[in-house]
Description:
A: 228 residues; B: Arc Repressor Mutant, subunit A; 2 domains; 7 helices
Amino acid sequence: xxxxxxxxxVLRNLPPVxxxxxxxxxxxxxxxxxxxxxxxxxxLALSGAAAAVLTVVAVGAVRFGPPVTSPPPTASGTxxxxxxxxxxxxxxxxxxxxxxxxxxxxxxxxxxxxxxFVVAPPGVTVASPSPGxxxxxxxxxxxxxxxxxxxxxxxxxxxxxxxxxxxQIGHPLSSATELSDTTWLMFPDGAGHTVxxxxxxxxxxxxxxxxxxxxxxxxxxxxxxxxx
Amino acid sequence: MRRTSExxxxxxxxxxxxxxxxxxxxxxxxxxxxxxxxDVVQTALTRIYLAWPKVRRETxxxxxxxxxxxxxxDERRSxxxxxxxxxxxxxxxxxxxxxxxxGDLAVALLATxxxxxxxxxxxxYVEGLSIAETAAAMRCGEGNVKSQSARGLQxxxxxxxxxxxHVCP
Lengths: 228, 169
């Protein structure tokens, strides 16, 4: 028995694996490239699905009146990227799926229903939703319930506190290799949902303002997630 | 974010350096099946490439090891794969082409361990990782690593001398 080798020594001394040839390494890289492309397509498809769902539910959307606030003093009358916005109390009609306590000063609610709450800066004209036509939320802040969206692997996210719950703030991809300047904040609502807040760079809100805005959001029982 | 060309260069260099040891780890985790081990490594490397911009160079090997462990476990769980036939006892005749090799016997004995116990034994004793490193690779608690690796090692040692004598009288 004494000359029987120890099983661990035997496993440690198994014949070494041969070095990988350049072809094998190149094939690994190629698989990585294909995976990136597939992931990008998947995300685009999910974004398309989100837009389609948003269109369907936005058909009956009501355009709310502006909150009782004054527009910010900008030279052009539109949101200026150089002027830091402030959050003000929201006093308009409360939306169906989400209740909010603050909005950026001067911004108006352009769409509100069970799937999303969207506010736009002064000067941004939003066409009335039509059946089958995707609704653009470019330059607008959107609050929705997350379905499948996740931060890209390339994004470094930061943990933030939203009403005592851990949220994550970061950026989505704008292309396969570039991060967008749009900000996403995702946080749990305490009822099993994850709320997603999408804020364009043009809103010029600080991260703490975005967190404060998110902290004033209450998800109602009517809210439902949209794909994307 | 790193540029794509820089990212590809770093990744290629990493794969060229580390692939053999990842294949070796995967081979042990999937009980010596070379084809399955290659599948596991390819899956793991693809996941690593997707996350590569966020992977720090100093922790890349540990991250890769974790991806291999996860891919090996996923491989076992996949409904589309042939299920391994696990048995508490080795067959009377070793199922490898060269049954008289201690290495084949040791790998065959590893296959008799549950997947998580096998991973704990391989990472802790064969790869020589610390308990903390093994726990990180397996994404479980250190206590779990201690108990799984100790019980796994005991089982292997109980079987190995007897089997070695039986197969190699």
